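About this split. The held-out portion is used to measure sequence recovery: a designer receives only the structure tokens and must propose an amino acid at every position. Recovery is the fraction of positions where the proposal matches the reference. Here is one held-out target exactly as it appears in the evaluation file.
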């Protein structure tokens, strides 16, 4: 489950940096509602989770791409060279009038979430379906730090209460690769 929240929290963290990001490399069209995400396209991010050590590393890699002729954005991610991973499709939900995402995992569960923007931070909340070790919701807050890193903090709803989840700091890394086993 720790890896799952890394995906959701990574999305939120990357959205926060929209206001700070430079012009993106990707030139293909996007629907207007997804245009604010352009700075993340064609980029790869590497995050080391809190508690990661050289002896027991926990590293999340994510890659952002334009999808479906600009109607969506696809994010692939993997933890520890494919020990766990997932794929997310980010899209504009016309009914809700907001950016929404669906996340599918190699662990067999999936989520559906949305983002809100407040005080320079992005908050995400998502519902979990399938067996995610008893976790039924994840909420995360993300922010861009002055050094350009993306900091993500997540919490899990399990057994009727919110509990601390993981913390991860991400850096852009063009050499990192998403891997699946």
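Reference sequence for scoring:
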């Amino acid at each position: 489950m720790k890896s799952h929240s890394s995906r959701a929290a990574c999305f939120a963290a990357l959205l926060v940096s929209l206001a700070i990001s430079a012009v993106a490399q990707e030139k293909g069209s996007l629907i207007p509602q997804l245009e604010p995400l352009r700075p993340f396209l064609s980029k790869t991010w590497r995050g080391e989770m809190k508690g990661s050590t050289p002896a027991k590393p926990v590293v999340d890699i994510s890659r952002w791409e334009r999808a479906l002729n600009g109607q969506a954005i696809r994010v692939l991610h993997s933890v520890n060279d494919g020990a766990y991973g997932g794929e997310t499709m980010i899209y504009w939900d016309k009914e809700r009038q907001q950016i929404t995402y669906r996340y599918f995992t190699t662990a067999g569960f999936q989520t559906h979430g949305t983002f809100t923007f407040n005080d320079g931070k992005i908050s995400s909340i998502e519902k979990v379906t399938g067996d995610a070790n008893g976790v039924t919701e994840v909420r995360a807050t993300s922010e861009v730090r002055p050094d350009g890193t993306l900091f993500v903090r997540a919490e899990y709803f399990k057994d009727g209460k919110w509990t601390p989840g993981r913390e991860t700091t991400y850096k852009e890394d063009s050499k990192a690769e998403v891997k699946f086993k």
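Annotator remark: Strands lie at 43-49, 59-67, 72-79, 84-93, 98-105, 110-118, 121-129, 135-144, 150-158, 161-172.
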